[in-house]
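Board notes, transcribed. Complex of a protein with copper (II) ion.
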Amino acid sequence: MVCHDHTKPAPASARRARRAAALALGTLAAVLLTLIPWSGTAVTHGSVVDPASRNYGCWDRWGDDSQNPAMADEDPMCWQAWQDNPNAMWNWNGLYRNGSAGDFESVVPDGQLCSGGRTEGGRYNSLDAVGPWQSTDVTDDFTVTLHDQAGHGADYFLVYVTKQGFDPATQALTWADLQQVARTGSYGPSQHYEIPVSTSGLSGRHVVYTIWQASHMDQTYFLCSDVDFG
Ligand SMILES: [Cu+2]
């Protein structure tokens, strides 16, 4: 059957219903827009969630209690991060640079590795701070797990671990402090990537540095995770 009714005005009741639906959608959009700065989930990118990146860890531990002064003693590096700029935590998934063309060492200077070279107008500068970041216990062989809310995929991941002897509690992180422990092939779009890492001879506190080269464009994430090899 051919429908001939497309140009006929819809009944008033249908028009009213459509107008009401449009209004409801508009209201919903307005509500979502006001939520964006606080939810941290409306801007969809990703980060390393295990071992937790510095800002993901601070968001995970304190996101529902970020004004608690007890944090200053219990988790001082997170405290200074929240004081510096809470958006570093609300946007835990947004620590990236565009257009690096693979030349990471020239766009991310020594001492600025954990902020991706003070990217995003300095939003993440607090992550370069030197001190007692809380760490995740790992063994020689461990898995880096990355959550990708946007399903960007990966051209590759590079994973580095600081050399034995480097002390993240007292030294600023430089490229020379890192040794590469993994380089992967590509990953198709997903929300969840796992990168197996093997090390040997490491003990105590280290930083795991993960570089995620996304596939949808030249977008690179620079992610510091604090670990303890025991
Ligand atoms: Cu993204």
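The beta strands are 46-50, 96-98, 136-137, 141-148, 154-162, 178-183, 192-198, 205-214, 219-228. Confidence is low (pLDDT under 50) at residues 1-12, 30-42.
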